[in-house]
Write a structure and sequence with these properties.
151 residues, mainly beta, Immunoglobulin-like, four-stranded antiparallel beta sheet
């Protein structure tokens, strides 16, 4: 049965599915632009990839930000989350270059990482080396194992 020939009144599940599909396609196309043949897309907003782990009673966050300079990166701890934002600036374009492909990320970036444990935000430290931002935050409460005798 052709879903375009269904009655226009009442609830139509096929029409609803089509609407949802169109909305999802719209959102996806805004997030991941698809270039036409031979067209290059400049990405202006992106989020760095991160690793979050615990070591020596500290929460460690490592974020890949290739091409960034440390003075262009900002780190904040707010509302039990770490906010990393900044900008990777593209070198001035040279007019004599003909690009066949450009996949490197440039422009403004932002990433919000919810913290899985309570931390001492005032004791946090951050370093930046070889395109990797490393944030170390001491945990607020040291977890202790207590054995309780059953009576």
């Amino acid at each position: 049965m052709d879903r375009r020939n269904l009655p226009a009144f009442g609830w139509n599940p096929f029409r609803e599915l089509t609407r949802i599909e169109q909305e999802l396609n719209k959102v996806f196309n805004e997030l991941v632009p698809t270039p036409k043949s031979g067209e290059l897309v400049e990405v202006t907003t992106w989020a760095p990839r991160v690793d979050v782990y615990e070591k020596d009673n500290k929460l460690i966050i490592e974020a890949e930000i290739p091409g960034a300079k440390k003075e262009d990166v900002e780190v904040k701890i707010k509302d039990n989350a770490v906010v990393i934002k900044g900008e990777v600036k593209k070198e001035a374009e040279e007019k004599d270059k003909t690009y066949y492909r450009t996949e490197r990320f440039y422009g403004v970036f932002e990433r919000v990482i919810p913290l899985p444990v309570e931390v001492k935000a005032e004791e946090a430290k951050a370093s930046f080396e070889n395109g990797v931002l490393k944030i170390e935050i001491p945990k607020a409460i040291e977890e202790k194992e207590v054995k309780i005798e059953v009576q």
